[in-house]
């Protein structure tokens, strides 16, 4: 067994691996060694998740946001972006298209819309549950405990709240007016009230070190999350980070593979951001530990307005077309699309 294989085994067997070991893996530059890392993660993925690739249908129902995150094109200071909110019937029509494609999870996503209509949202969640056999993931940002509770009671199953970085100083430099403590407190609230909870990070942020990325992975481990989304930083022309360099696809893939080895029974998407670089890296992600793909079912006329970063893949195609394209991708990898709900992999 090579030194690297021994290190990966040590990391995989540790209940809480050492940060220096993770930094050593993230520092790998030699391509054959990186292949060893990806193959190791792929074996863990096969053991924990099997061959199936789960689908989550995304509906981006509002691009209004009260925040000014330094990396995000939806930030409130981007006055050139036309804003939209889908009506209740547009949301339900989109969800019907998700159901027609046999996808059993819908992800309802928006910016942190200051005017979010909680009562309307509750009605939408109840209608989805009445009309479709489908689990609901929400990704609406920070809310108060009571609103989270109402959403849970109405039938929402899961909640995604990305931390983006677990380094408090970096977090607060990128999120003016927001507090790291509150972000983590929201994650804890969501977990406590029984949501299957997801988070994630951005790789390649200005000021981010390999040690910070290793600490992100350990943060995900400590929080015992059900899902983790890992994507590269992609600069957006209407943000304060417009002149920064793009995050590296290779480092993002190494982070993903190492996350699979450390976190094991967690859902890891091949993120749309990884698919939106100079080439589509989702295939590599699926070979390096990922087990989820996220076709986009936002109505076509709004898709391009949900521009967190530029060059987003699949904004000209309908969600059903994305599903057939992802099915071909699964076949190329000798994997299958898993049309089940894909609930948490943690033991009840
Ligand atoms: S990352 Fe989320 S909260 Fe921040 S500006 Fe973008 S949409 Fe708003």
Report a brief summary of the structure:
This protein is α/β, with parallel strands linked by helices. 43% of the residues lie in helices and 12% in strands.
Walkthrough of the structure:
The protein is α/β, with parallel strands linked by helices and 348 residues long. It has a single domain (3-338), classed as Alpha-Beta Barrel (TIM Barrel), CATH 3.20.20. The chain has helices at 3-13, 19-26, 31-49, 88-100, 118-131, 145-154, 168-174, 180-192, 210-223, 249-263, 282-287, 300-303, 319-332; strands at 52-55, 57-62, 105-110, 135-139, 158-160, 196-203, 227-232, 292-293, 336-338. Helix 4 (88-100) runs parallel beside helix 5 (118-131). The site of iron/sulfur cluster has 10 residues, from loops.
Strand elements, count = 9
- Overall tally of domains: 1
- Radius of gyration, rounded? 19 Å
Biggest sheet strand line-up: 2-3-4-5-6-7
Strand portion, in percent? 5-15%
Helical fraction equals 40-55%
Structural class: alpha/beta
Describe the SSE topology:
Elements: H1 3-13, H2 19-26, H3 31-49, E1 52-55, E2 57-62, H4 88-100, E3 105-110, H5 118-131, E4 135-139, H6 145-154, E5 158-160, H7 168-174, H8 180-192, E6 196-203, H9 210-223, E7 227-232, H10 249-263, H11 282-287, E8 292-293, H12 300-303, H13 319-332, E9 336-338
Parallel strand pairs: 1-8, 1-9, 2-3, 3-4, 4-5, 5-6, 6-7
Bound molecules: iron/sulfur cluster.
């Amino acid at each position: 067994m090579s030194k690297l294989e021994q290190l990966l085994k040590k990391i995989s067997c540790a209940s809480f691996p050492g940060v220096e070991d993770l930094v050593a893996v993230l520092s790998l530059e030699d391509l054959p060694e990186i292949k060893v890392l990806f193959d190791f993660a792929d074996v863990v993925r096969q053991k924990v998740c099997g061959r199936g690739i789960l689908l989550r249908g995304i509906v981006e129902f509002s691009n209004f946001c009260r925040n000014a995150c330094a990396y995000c094109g939806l930030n409130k200071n981007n006055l050139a972006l036309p804003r939209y909110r889908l009506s209740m019937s547009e949301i339900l029509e989109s969800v019907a298209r998700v159901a027609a494609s046999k996808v059993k999870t819908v992800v309802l996503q928006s910016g942190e819309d200051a005017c979010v209509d909680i009562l309307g949202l509750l009605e939408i969640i109840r209608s989805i549950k009445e009309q479709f056999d489908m689990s609901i993931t929400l990704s609406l940002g920070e809310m108060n405990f009571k609103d989270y509770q109402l959403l849970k009671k109405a039938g929402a199953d899961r909640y995604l709240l990305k931390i983006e970085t677990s380094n408090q100083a970096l977090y607060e430099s990128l999120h003016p007016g927001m507090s790291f403590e509150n972000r983590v407190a929201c994650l804890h609230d969501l977990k406590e009230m029984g949501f299957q909870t997801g988070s994630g990070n951005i790789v390649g942020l200005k000021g981010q070190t390999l040690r910070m990325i290793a600490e992100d992975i350990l943060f995900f481990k400590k929080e015992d999350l059900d899902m983790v989304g890992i994507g590269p930083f992609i600069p957006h022309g209407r943000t304060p980070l417009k002149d920064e360099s793009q995050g590296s696809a290779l480092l993002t893939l190494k982070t993903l593979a190492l996350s699979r080895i450390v976190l094991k029974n967690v859902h890891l998407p091949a993120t749309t951001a990884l698919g939106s670089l100079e080439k589509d890296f989702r295939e590599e992600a699926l070979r390096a530990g990922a087990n989820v793909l996220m076709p986009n079912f936002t109505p076509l006329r709004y898709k391009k307005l949900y521009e967190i970063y530029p060059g987003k893949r699949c904004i000209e195609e309908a969600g059903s077309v994305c599903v057939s394209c992802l099915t071909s991708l699964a076949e190329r990898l000798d994997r299958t699309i898993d049309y089940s709900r894909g609930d948490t992999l943690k033991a009840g």
